[in-house]
Design goal:
Helices cover 14% and strands 30% of the residues. It is an alpha+beta fold. Strands 1-2 form a two-stranded antiparallel ribbon.
């Protein structure tokens, strides 16, 4: 089914269900250490908490971190 929500640019930093998963994250990050992905202006960062439920994950903003004083 097509996505009905408006597009919101985001960059998932990563999710690990168990600390044993960090080894794989570090290995994959090392493979892309010198890769360029382009540029974007980012004025803040939102920290989300995801809660799994029977209908899928629900996301809640728990903090906003502005990168500029006027953001």
């Amino acid at each position: 089914a097509p996505e009905l929500r408006p597009f919101a640019a985001h960059l998932p930093v990563g999710g690990v269900r168990d600390v044993r998963g960090w080894k794989r994250v570090r290995e994959r990050r090392a493979l892309r250490a010198n890769q360029e992905f382009g540029e974007s202006l980012v004025d803040s960062m939102l920290l989300y908490q995801s809660v799994r439920g029977p209908g899928g994950a629900a996301y809640e903003i728990i903090a906003r971190y502005p990168f500029r004083s006027d953001a």
